[in-house]
């Protein structure tokens, strides 16, 4: 190590002092200056001395280097006497050159620092990220924008391989090919998407120095573009839906000016876009008020408004609603229905209902009117029966609705997807009924099956089972006990899985006492008895039944009757209805027929003469008022009707017994019952 003495520590000496302090092989032993305020003395600290003569004399060994920086010749000459063979004396001129070189270096460093700071300031002020790599693919520079985009600090990136920071970086490839890559998309591991341009760093002489990339974060731009694309797609889809919709649609803005219509609207109104778009909302109305304007004023929807539109004054039904975006009213949209089309659909609905009425098991519990406590209890029992795999016996007077409940039980059961077959046991002769129920082995193959086989897995409704002969009762009992039948003329048992629902208006208990009905069959059928009260015992049902039947009769007769006046309804509630619901339907039907086309409500004058309950009530046994004479045929019909009814009541509605007492055939009895609206059960 070289020991150094610096004489004179003004500006030049101070500069040399700073330089030597940075060199490990040089040890500045002392700094001398006669000027106590020289800047180098303070910098040297405890190494500072005022005079060099006494200091050099006191040293045991010579100084290796003496630097004279005062520039004074006498000082330089004086220092020569202290120079030894091994020591070096550097004159002030050389020190001055060193000082100038150091100043120039500092100036250059300052300038370079300023340029670097300016470059960094410039690069950090741009929003695009920048990464520079060297020949070894190590990152040498990143700007602040790159830090923000990559979510990494500069210290975490500089000095690392670029592929460690960006795994899909193409900068090494760009450096290899020396070809630019402009505006290339890239997905970063942090989920961001960027567009990057990569450029090789090549000098004018063709020397490769590295490569750099400039990139822009386009994540938000892409998301916004996707949202715009989605919105545009949604808009196109909505427009396509509106244009292809068969519903006529009209849209206006918040000022009530037309924005949009579809072809269906043009078809109904006969108006083109040029006649609607940009025009007031009233432009299409020929009669009535604008529902668009009403919606814009009230901000509330409108339903079922009738008006006439277009030059042809087409009768339409309008539903309109406000268009609200974040609570701000933006317009109104209306859907227009052609009433002529609705009327056509109503006609089709009537036809469909007529077809449904002809299908098997067409009624459900929802079709049965039950407002009275008695009928509600009956339906609850029937619903239990529907879910329980037992035979059900429906009991009640003729016309109370036994068949409706039988239909409902089938449709509520797990057999609803199979057949429901109804048989009126009193409507056929015994031999024909036996073949119909059990099949005929002697008949043609296509007609050998009986109704028990046809109803396999389903339900068989035996109506008027009280009129079944004792012999046929035994065969029905065999089916219930063994789940098999034997065809007429056959011997082979055929297994069947049938649920039997039976109904009667006969007093079976009395019939058993008179040996006309088998006890064992009764107990077999009576596992779940359901009593249906007559209409006179459930007057609470008369009002809703009346409304229901009027709706049905309106469809059948093509009328628009709205209901029954209070006084006429009171007359109906006071009547006993021997024929029950069927008779109520007959009375209402006759009343509607007698009404004028412009009348909407049934009054007491429209009601037909209600049936008398006994012979003593018949008008034909009373003195006629004002010499009015009842026509003979009317009197005979009334007498016949009352006689048949009372005979039926006395015989507990056993029709075979009634026919014998009246000395007429069973077929003739059915004819007369139908004539007087006491006919075969349609809905028992």
From TrEMBL:
Asked whether the keyword rRNA processing is assigned, the reply is: no
Q: Which CDD domains match?
A: AAA, PAS
Determine the domain of life of the protein's source.
Answer: Bacteria
Keywords of this protein's UniProt record, alphabetized?
ATP-binding, DNA-binding, Nucleotide-binding, Transcription, Transcription regulation
Query: Which InterPro entries does its entry note?
Result: AAA+_ATPase (IPR003593), AAA_lid_NorR (IPR058031), Homeodomain-like_sf (IPR009057), HTH_Fis (IPR002197), NAD(P)-bd_dom_sf (IPR036291), P-loop_NTPase (IPR027417), PAS (IPR000014), PAS-like_dom_sf (IPR035965)
Tell me the NCBIfam families matching this sequence.
sensory_box (TIGR00229)
Q: Which PANTHER family match?
A: SIGMA L-DEPENDENT TRANSCRIPTIONAL REGULATOR YQIR-RELATED (PTHR32071:SF121), TRANSCRIPTIONAL REGULATORY PROTEIN (PTHR32071)
Q: What is this protein called?
A: PAS domain S-box-containing protein
State the species of origin: Alkalibacillus filiformis
Its organism's taxonomic lineage begins at: Bacteria, Bacillati, Bacillota, Bacilli, Bacillales
């Amino acid at each position: 190590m070289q020991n150094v003495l610096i004489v004179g520590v003004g500006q030049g000496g101070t500069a040399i002092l700073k330089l030597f302090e940075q060199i490990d092989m040089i040890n500045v032993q002392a700094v001398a200056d006669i000027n106590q305020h020289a800047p180098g003395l303070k910098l040297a600290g405890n190494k500072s001395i005022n005079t060099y003569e006494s200091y050099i004399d006191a040293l045991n060994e010579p100084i290796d280097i003496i630097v004279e920086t005062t520039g004074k010749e006498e000082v330089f000459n004086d220092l020569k006497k202290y120079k030894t063979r091994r020591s070096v004396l550097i004159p002030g001129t050389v020190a001055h050159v060193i000082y100038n070189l150091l100043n120039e270096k500092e100036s250059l460093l300052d300038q370079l620092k300023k340029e670097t700071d300016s470059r960094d300031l410039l690069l950090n002020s741009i929003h695009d990220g920048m990464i520079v790599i060297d020949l070894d693919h190590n990152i040498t520079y990143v700007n602040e924008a790159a830090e923000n985009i990559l979510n990494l600090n500069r210290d975490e990136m500089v000095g690392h391989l670029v592929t460690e920071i960006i795994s899909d970086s193409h900068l090494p490839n760009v450096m290899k090919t020396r070809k630019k890559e402009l505006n290339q998309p890239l997905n970063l591991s942090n989920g961001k998407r960027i567009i990057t341009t990569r450029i090789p760093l090549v000098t004018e002489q063709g020397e490769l120095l590295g490569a750099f990339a400039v990139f822009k974060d386009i994540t938000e731009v892409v998301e916004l573009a996707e949202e715009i694309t989605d919105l545009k797609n949604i808009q196109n889809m909505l427009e396509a839906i509106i244009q292809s919709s068969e519903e006529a649609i009209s849209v206006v803005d918040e000022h009530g000016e037309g924005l949009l219509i579809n072809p269906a609207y043009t078809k109904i109104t006969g108006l083109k876009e040029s006649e609607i778009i940009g025009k007031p909302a009233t432009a299409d109305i020929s009669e009535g008020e604008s529902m668009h304007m009403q919606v814009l004023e009230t901000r509330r929807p409108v339903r079922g408004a009738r008006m006439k539109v277009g030059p042809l004054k087409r009768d339409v039904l309008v539903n309109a609603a406000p268009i609200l975006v974040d609570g701000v009213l933006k317009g109104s949209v209306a859907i227009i229905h052609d009433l002529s089309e609705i009327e056509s659909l109503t006609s089709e609905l009537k036809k469909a209902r007529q077809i449904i009425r002809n299908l098997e098991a067409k009624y459900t519990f929802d079709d049965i009117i039950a407002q009275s406590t008695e009928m509600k209890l009956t339906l609850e029992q029937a619903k239990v029966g529907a879910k329980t795999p037992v035979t059900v016996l429906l009991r009640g007077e003729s016309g109370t609705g036994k068949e409706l409940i039988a239909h409902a039980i089938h449709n509520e059961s797990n057999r609803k997807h199979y057949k429901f077959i109804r048989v009126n046991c009193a409507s056929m002769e015994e031999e024909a009924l036996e073949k119909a129920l059990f099949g005929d082995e002697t008949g043609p193959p296509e007609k050998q099956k009986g109704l028990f086989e046809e109803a396999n897995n389903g339900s068989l409704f035996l109506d008027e089972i009280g009129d079944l002969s004792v012999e046929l009762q035994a065969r029905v009992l065999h089916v219930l006990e063994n789940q098999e039948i034997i065809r007429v003329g056959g011997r082979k048992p055929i297994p069947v899985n049938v649920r039997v629902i039976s109904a009667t208006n006969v007093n079976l208990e009395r019939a058993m006492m008179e040996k006309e009905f088998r006890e064992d069959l009764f107990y077999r059928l009576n596992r779940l008895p359901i009593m249906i009260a007559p209409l006179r015992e459930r007057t609470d049902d008369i009002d809703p039944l009346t409304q229901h039947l009027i709706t049905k009769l309106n469809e059948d007769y093509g009328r628009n009757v709205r209901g029954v006046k209070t006084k006429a309804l009171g007359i109906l509630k006071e009547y006993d209805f021997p024929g029950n619901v069927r008779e109520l339907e007959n009375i209402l039907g006759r009343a509607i027929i007698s009404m004028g086309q412009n009348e909407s409500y049934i009054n007491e004058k429209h009601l037909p003469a209600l049936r008398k309950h006994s012979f003593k009530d018949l008008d034909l046994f009373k003195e006629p008022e004002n010499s009015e004479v009842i026509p003979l045929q009317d009197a005979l019909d009334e007498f016949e009707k009352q006689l048949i009814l009372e005979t039926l009541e006395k015989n507990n509605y056993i029709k075979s017994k009634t026919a014998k007492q009246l000395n007429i055939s069973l077929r003739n009895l059915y004819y007369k019952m139908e004539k007087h609206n006491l006919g075969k059960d349609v809905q028992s």
